[in-house]
Fold:
Amino acid sequence: QAVSAVSTNTFPSLTFGKVVHLKKQTFLLGLFLCAHLASAASVKTMLAFADVHYDLLYSPTSTPERMCRGANDGPAQYYCDSSEWLVDSLFGMMSTTMATPDFIYYGGDTGPHNVNSSVIYQAQQRFLEQLRGRFPHTSTIMSLGNDDFPEDYEASCDPEWYQQLATLWTHHGILFDKSTFVKGGYYAVSPLPGMRALVLNTILYAAKNPLSLGTDPCGQFTWLRKELATAAAMNETVFVLAHAQPSHESIDSPRTGVPDRIWKPEYVERYLRIIRSLPPHAQLFGHMHEDSFRLMFASGEDSLRPKEATPCSVLIDLPPVTPKAGGNPTFRQYDIDFDDDTNAMHLRRYRQYNLDLAQEVPAWGIEYQSDVEYPALSDLGPARYRDLFLAVRD
Structure:
């Protein structure tokens, strides 16, 4: 999953640093803007993963040039989406690693690439059957990716598709709030006491979304501002969970020379204004198919002096399960320090597991542990990520 370093690119209100290869994975070191922090103590666990891209048409005898598709199931291979064997192997390893996590977060993109809506729905259905088979009693939170819609990236405010997914999610016991989900695919839940998970549908803001949805698609920005204010008033710790992160441009663009925007610029600016006012403790995304992070600071001036300024939040990109981009399937186990008296919490560490497809018989193992591989990450708070940023930059 390594890439070479690229030069700095700047946009209004955003400063992107270099893509740096650190041993086993790639970190995008970037600076955003924002204001507030959390603290901690006993341990809760979260399993987190993203971008399964479950291909029920996968064939072990096919090739990437043929989309790896056919009638049979079998082992996984690089540059192909996930087979049924791979998804079953994933959930098997997750349940072996942590049979009873406190909750699971899945960052979206369940459907395979280049298929129709019926296949997208079937992939969701089979994915949930296998997940609940392994974790029948674990609270599970899911966000929507661009390949979770009938047409790639075409997220809208039409409730029909959301209603279909809501029925499926309810049947399989997914933790979500249907009242807002059917309005636009977003919702708030509390998987732990004192924690407010704000699950966003960021495909509404995608640059590749062909629909014109106005300045506040499906009312999600208004809802987000209110949820952040309510959480602050109740002294709750906020995690923002979504698929595609706020960015004017993907990190692939400098390498390819081809513009590949993630969000439409006007939506990036509005999101940052809201988040800067009441920054969450952490923000988890998928979509990039890379292991990366970005820092958020309280002002543009602070982002230019990261040694002296303390960041207020961190955006974490989860690496993918699908080996479509040529990497090994991956998931994480997060430890969350939790104070039973105050319900205060923060991310402490994670262990990253991957399936080494280069082996003759692919096997899961620990790729690295955050605080062991990177001593600067003694915890996963924004200040420690800043320390890692400085260590790599300098």
